[in-house]
Design brief:
The protein is of the alpha+beta class and 287 residues long. The protein has eleven helices and eleven strands.
């Protein structure tokens, strides 16, 4: 009966809406010709849907919760989303954010997407699995709540710089290896401020994910073809566009927000032995 191509996005949307498994969602969409409402109803009729979610209501508001030690040896951060600004200000939401922040501090080092990490969701928090605890608070508040991402940096012989915007909509952690002390901490904090503003996608050009570069290549090729450039020089122009993209979106190659005469790489090199290992940037409302 399928009348439209069923995409992974369709399946994910139906899964988020009904709580049913991937295979069941795909089958329901195929049986209903891709009609989301009809597929959700079919799953409910079959008793497969775990619960009817709030259709069309997304948790796109919320706050970033961040904690970092004064000495720069530790940093943790959580993005907690809700539907409205009002709920973000409630005591229950704030308490959950602090619970998740403590949970993040005990999680494996790195950045994690909670919705994709089954082990983390199953880990205990407040006497229950973390995923269940979030659902419990959402049920009490009566609004969709999601803990999207968390980060935990704790370097050995290095420094963590942190930045949290005054509205708590953007938070950043930066891990620097090879340097400690006041100069390293000041630099790491400056780099965190820069990351919040400039939104790089990787530390170095060569660190940009291959799928991102491939997407940019397709875009560049379409642009060059639309401009009517001669076939003989198109590949060279595309390569140039890709180099420019990598330089603009890689942290160390970007002009430093406090002094655009220097790159972020120059700022890092000013501290002997320092090297940026990784960063995490959470902004409310972003994917």
């Amino acid at each position: 009966m399928t009348t439209k191509t069923i995409t992974t996005k369709d399946i994910s949307e139906l899964r988020a809406r009904t709580g049913a498994g991937i295979g069941d969602c795909k089958k329901a969409l195929e049986e209903t010709g891709g009609d989301m409402d009809a597929a959700a109803e079919l799953l409910r009729k079959k008793g497969i849907a775990k619960a009817e979610k709030r259709a069309g209501r997304d948790a796109m508001q919320g706050l970033v919760f961040l904690e970092a030690s004064d000495g720069g040896d530790f940093g943790a951060m959580v993005e907690l989303n809700c539907e409205t600004d009002f709920v973000a200000k409630t005591e229950a939401f704030q308490a959950l954010g602090l619970e998740l922040l403590a949970f993040a501090a005990a999680a494996p080092a790195g950045t994690h997407r909670l919705g994709q990490d089954g082990e983390l969701l199953a880990a205990p928090m407040g006497g229950k699995p973390a995923g269940e605890r979030v659902k419990e608070v959402a049920g009490v508040i009566g609004e969709a709540i999601s803990a999207k991402r968390l980060a935990h940096f704790r370097p050995h012989g290095g420094t963590v710089g942190a930045y949290l915007h005054h509205n708590r909509q953007v938070g950043v952690l930066v891990e620097v290896a090879g340097a400690t002390g006041p100069a390293a901490l000041a630099m790491a904090r400056d780099v965190a401020l820069h990351v919040a503003s400039a939104d790089p996608v990787a530390v170095r050009p060569e660190d940009i994910p291959a799928e991102v570069m491939e997407r940019e290549r397709r875009i560049a090729e379409e642009q060059v073809a639309a401009e009517g450039k001669p076939e003989a020089i198109r590949a060279k122009i595309v390569d140039g566009k890709l180099r420019k993209f990598a330089e603009e979106r890689a942290l160390l190659a970007q002009p430093f927000v406090k002094d655009e005469a220097r790159t972020v790489g120059d700022v890092v090199k000013a501290v002997p032995g320092a090297m940026v290992v990784r960063f995490a940037r959470f902004r409310i409302g972003e994917a």
